[in-house]
Design a protein that fits this description.
3-stranded mixed β-sheet; binds glutamine; Rossmann fold; 5-stranded mixed β-sheet; alpha/beta; 4 helices
Length: about 170
């Protein structure tokens, strides 16, 4: 994720502790990873509340995979929500189903149209599926297998796949 934004000419820093937030930012990138771990760490490090306020306040957000899961209003986790809701931002009006593509199709690359651009490589890594959209203001930017795979809503652009793996 860092290399992706550097390649675009951005001045990038990692948020690892609360003090990092004082550097100020024009965009928050929420990377992939394990959303349950990310949510837990955000809480434990005291990052959750300030970041939630910043996102609510309109800070542009670019989220992939686990980042999208953290933002989703509803998370379906094997039929029921086993994750603590207070560890989820719950801002983006969509529902996601974690690890939606099963074990065999856990990771794969396909090509598709993103926001009008055809033939964009889309790599999915134990990706979630966007299973519902709760607001007409959510714009669908790409789809795969009948489900939206990237959406834009207000200040948030979020992907179930990993655009940052294909720089250039
Ligand atoms: N499967 C992960 C989760 O549920 C997300 C995977 C990813 O970010 N590539 O949190």
């Amino acid at each position: 994720m860092e290399a992706y934004w550097r390649a675009k000419g951005a001045d990038v820093f990692e948020i690892r502790q609360r003090a990092d937030l004082s550097r100020g930012m024009d965009l928050l990138a929420l990377p992939g990873g394990e959303s349950t771990v990310q949510g837990k760490l955000l809480k434990e490090l005291g990052l959750f509340d300030p970041l939630k306020s910043a996102i609510d306040g309109g800070l542009p957000v670019f989220a992939t995979c686990a980042g999208l899961i953290l933002l989703a209003e509803k998370v379906e986790d094997g039929g029921e929500r086993t994750v603590r809701p207070e560890r989820w931002f719950g801002i983006l009006p969509v529902a996601v189903r974690r690890n939606a593509y099963g074990r065999q199709l856990g990771s794969f690359t396909t090509r598709g149209t993103f926001d009008g651009t055809p033939d964009v490589p889309m790599t999915f890594i134990r990706a979630p599926a966007i299973s519902a959209i709760f607001s007409p203001d959510v714009e669908v930017l790409s789809t795969f297998d009948g489900h939206p795979t990237a959406v834009r809503w207000r200040n948030i652009t979020a992907f179930t796949w990993h655009p940052e793996l294909h720089i250039g």
